[in-house]
Design the sequence.
């Protein structure tokens, strides 16, 4: 089983990404699970004054992605495909995506995530296929303590 040290290094990896810095997303990673929170900001609204779907995708994909990478200690995983369902608009507060691994094979993983508004109402969901890359988990990708 991966260690808490691995989970914290993955959190640091995520927090070092430019898009994550821009959105102020935060991660909490565990064994086959991940939770991503992002504050809702008007800068990320579409023309109808609600949060743009790209931010939903970012939260959902990252929650599923890091749930998978929590189980892989040597390399960065890649999203091979990811399907999103945007079910409700959100205009304020914070969104939270909860991801978990649902299937683990030799060469691919399947993970799903559910997105909630700050009142705990489901606003979206997603699922995807993830594969191991050849990119080492090390300081070059922000994998540091």
Sequence:
């Amino acid at each position: 089983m991966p260690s808490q040290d691995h989970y914290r290094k993955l959190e640091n990896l995520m927090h070092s990404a430019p898009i994550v810095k821009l959105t102020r997303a935060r991660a909490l990673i565990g064994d086959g699970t991940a939770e991503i929170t992002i504050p809702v900001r008007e800068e990320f609204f579409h023309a109808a004054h609600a949060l743009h779907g790209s931010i939903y995708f970012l939260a959902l994909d990252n929650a599923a992605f890091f749930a998978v990478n929590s189980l892989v200690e040597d390399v960065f995983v890649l999203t091979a495909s990811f399907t999103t369902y945007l079910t409700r608009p959100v205009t304020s507060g914070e969104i939270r995506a909860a991801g978990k691994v649902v299937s683990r094979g030799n060469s691919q993983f399947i993970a799903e995530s559910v997105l909630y508004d700050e009142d705990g109402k489901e606003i979206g969901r997603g699922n995807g296929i993830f594969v191991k890359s050849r990119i080492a988990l090390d300081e070059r990708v922000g994998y540091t303590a």
